[in-house]
Task: inverse folding
């Protein structure tokens, strides 16, 4: 005790004596005060406490669950998550609440299907400083667009080079498959610039007029584009 | 002291149950009470004859205008909305198909209830009529047997909602065309046929 606490031995002893006593006294005082409070307004106080707890916890959890993306309803296909029910009339209440809060107009089942990816095929989060190859085939659709976005609003100073590719404009190989490189620096072929300097990014694949919107279960890993990490700037 | 803590535990449990109830009620109430949802925001377009553009594709150096309120729009798809209020009469949406793929989706507060693409067009025209159940029955009764209507009739779940028009621009050169194609769709309210005031004011065509 004397070795640990700096200062003179007398002082340390005095402090050692004093602190526990004051603590006990304050604890006892608080306990007595609380007990007094309980006894005085037992039912009313507890009711106020229960109501307050319920209101605060309930509203906070509802806010947390409906902020940002859809909490559930997604179908995992490889690294992608398909959201077939986001725009349906029988969507779950959380999806409806998220749409209402964001003012989102989701794609209806007859219109198309939205797939999002925030991780690569190895399960690592997509990052703006890394380069990725997004390639392969897509599920059958009349048209599709592959876009990238960072979180939150766009940087105002950043020049808008390209945010995505459409199925018409993407360059394809001889076998009809495509390969898009998402990278911060200029790349040959289909280059998709990173939307910002750093931070997480998200890919969105929108299939328009597609039969798979009604049967997402028919999608498998090979029918969606693969996302492979090529390297990261250290 | 033990009595107090036991009471305290009970109060906490009741609070947690209340929290669950409040949570469920809040999540269910958000779509009803929200003023930022798409149905409320689209209401400004109710009196327009053409869709109100809510996402115009950037053309050339022009960035997309700030009227866009879609959170994460597709940068290659032009979007417009037509709000309807079926209390004023059925809503007619007419689109002419062009070289670009176009889709129409009817939304109400609960979500989309109908969607169609231009592949369903008959001879290059896509005519949608959105009506209530009563208006639908009336339209059926008024139908001429020898000359059946070619409209696609859809019964809406609510009186209020909106129709979304999306046109995809596959190439950058098609972007102005896509923006124009959204504007060329017409959304009009059919004046009720049995209302004398509407007949006088609207000048109903006599050839029916």
Result:
């Amino acid at each position: 005790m004397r070795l640990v606490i700096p200062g003179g031995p007398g002082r340390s002893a005095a402090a050692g004596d004093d602190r526990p006593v004051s603590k006990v006294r304050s604890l006892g005082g608080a306990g007595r005060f609380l007990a007094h409070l309980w006894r005085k307004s037992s039912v009313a106080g507890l009711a106020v406490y229960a109501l307050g707890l319920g209101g605060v916890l309930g509203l906070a959890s509802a806010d947390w669950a409906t902020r940002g993306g859809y909490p559930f309803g997604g179908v995992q296909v490889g690294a992608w998550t398909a959201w077939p029910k986001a725009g349906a009339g029988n969507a779950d209440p959380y999806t409806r609440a998220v749409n209402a809060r964001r003012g989102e107009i989701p794609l209806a089942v007859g219109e198309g299907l939205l797939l999002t990816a925030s991780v690569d095929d190895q399960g690592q989060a997509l990052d703006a400083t890394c380069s990725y190859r997004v390639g392969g085939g897509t599920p059958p659709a009349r048209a599709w667009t592959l876009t990238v976005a960072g979180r939150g609003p766009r940087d105002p100073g950043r020049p808008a080079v390209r945010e995505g590719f459409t199925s018409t404009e993407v360059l394809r190989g001889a076998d009809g498959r495509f390969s898009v490189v998402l990278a911060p620096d200029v790349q040959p072929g289909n280059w998709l610039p990173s939307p910002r300097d750093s931070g997480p990014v998200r890919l969105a694949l929108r299939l328009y007029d597609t039969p798979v919107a009604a049967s997402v279960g028919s999608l498998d890993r090979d029918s969606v584009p693969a996302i492979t990490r090529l390297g990261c700037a250290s | 002291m033990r009595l107090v803590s036991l009471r305290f535990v009970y109060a906490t449990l009741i609070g947690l149950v209340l929290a669950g109830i409040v949570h469920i009620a809040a999540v269910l109430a958000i779509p009803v009470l929200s003023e930022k949802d798409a149905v409320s925001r689209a209401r400004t377009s109710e009196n327009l004859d053409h869709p109100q553009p809510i996402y115009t594709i950037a053309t050339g150096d022009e960035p997309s205008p700030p009227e866009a309120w879609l959170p994460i729009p597709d940068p290659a798809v032009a979007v417009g909305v037509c709000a309807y209020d079926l209390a004023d009469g059925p809503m007619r949406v007419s689109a002419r198909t062009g070289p670009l793929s176009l889709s129409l989706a009817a939304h109400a507060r609960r979500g989309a209830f109908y969607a169609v693409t231009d592949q369903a067009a008959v001879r290059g025209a896509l005519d949608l009529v959105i009506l209530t159940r009563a208006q639908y029955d009336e339209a059926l009764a008024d139908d001429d047997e020898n000359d059946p209507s070619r409209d696609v009739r859809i019964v809406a779940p609510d009186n209020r909602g909106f129709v979304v028009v999306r046109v995809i621009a596959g190439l950058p050169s098609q972007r102005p065309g896509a923006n124009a194609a959204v504007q060329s769709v017409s959304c009009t309210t059919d004046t009720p046929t049995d209302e004398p005031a509407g007949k006088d004011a609207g000048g109903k065509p006599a050839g029916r």
Q: What stands out?
A: Helices of chain B lie at 2-33, 38-42, 133-142, 175-184, 196-202.
